[in-house]
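Bumping with the actual sequence this time:
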Amino acid sequence: MPPRADLSRPLWSQFLAFLAPMMLSNILQALSGTINNIYLGQMIGTDALAAASVFFPIMFFLLALVLGMGAGASVLIGQAWGAGDRDRVRDVAATTLTATLVAGVAIAVALTPAARMLMTALGTPEAVLPGAVAYASVMLAAMPVAFAFLLITQLLRGVGDTVTPLLALAVSISLSMVLTPALIRGWLGLRPLGVASAACATVTAWSATLVAMGIYLRWRRGPLMPDGRFLRAMRPDRRILGQVLRLGVPSALQMVIMALAEMVLLGLVNGFGPDATAAYGAVNQVLAYVQFPAMSIAITVTILSAQAIGGGRTAMLGPILRAGLLFNLALTGTLVALAYLFSGQLVGLFITRTAVIGQTQTLLHIVLWSAVVYGAALILSGQMRASGVVMAPTALQVGCIALVEVPAAWWLSGRIGLDGVWIAYPTTFVAMLIGQALYFTLVWRRRPVLALA
């Protein structure tokens, strides 16, 4: 049975039991995209990498919907699991899954025909536009599969199960590693698909893994296994859906604003040419590995805090927060140091042209250190969200994105060039941390913390 937050084990042990599989899962998730980008960059060329990279902000924008729903549902599930209410866990999970699948189908139907218009609106360089459209069309059509895959892994974490998502991602990335080069080269009798190969391989791997995960959960007879009770609960409960939306919509809105800002920034980057677009993709790949531990730690703090609140053990909140901040400093800080040390080799995995490698290293050096700051801001907001307080943390982060990141990137890029876009990131993360720390200390910590009904 997945662990609940309790006082019978040392906190660091609970933290690691939850965090380690989730960190490995996030690394595998990033590795899947990284390997696909390496295949594209090395087997087709830099323009292919740029074509796939252009879709990143749109993917982030769309996944913000499911990530927000999952964040809201995970808080409710975490509190119910901490209180030992297994029926409520299933009801919340089933209702959220139904709503998410409906949203995924609607997005696929509405946006797949508009792939070229979306890519053009982002200012995609003409040289990479056909590949970008092909890649985007496949990914947009597969939104229901993507939504289901990501949501189920989030819901499992709400009950403390971080091992099943790890196994699922291991299966997914293994399939993707085989399928992507096969589709690029036309091996095994397959038709070569060019840039779309990475997207087709990813979608196929997600689909196969979803089936395998359903079989595995039935075999384990876990709290979220897809049995008759779960399927009947997939007829949405309006009250539960309202609670999920109340908690999840602000989180989704925050991520949507982040995605919109990322699109604006990508438009600025695209204005500097295809090499700058390829550098953007490579920096984001490296940065993902550095940020994933920070995000994993923040999720761990949220889930353990939610379970503690649901179980009436609010005295654990302070130790959980301190553990999260220390883990962030140690783990994220170590990865930042390693990324600085081996930046040339890391960038060289994606970029083959020497001039672009140097430019990409410079951009990476500008932004890397701020991952530690970003992690601390996420941890503070994560514990507040675990108690159901979502509006203030969301408003603070959205305010920093809208009032600091976008204006700073536009102003600085116009004066110092491409470097200015990347300077906007650490500037924003510092502002986020200051805002979250002030609200946490002066407001949230002085209020009583109660479980959600």
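The tokens above came from a reply further down the thread. Confidence is low (pLDDT under 50) at residues 1-7.
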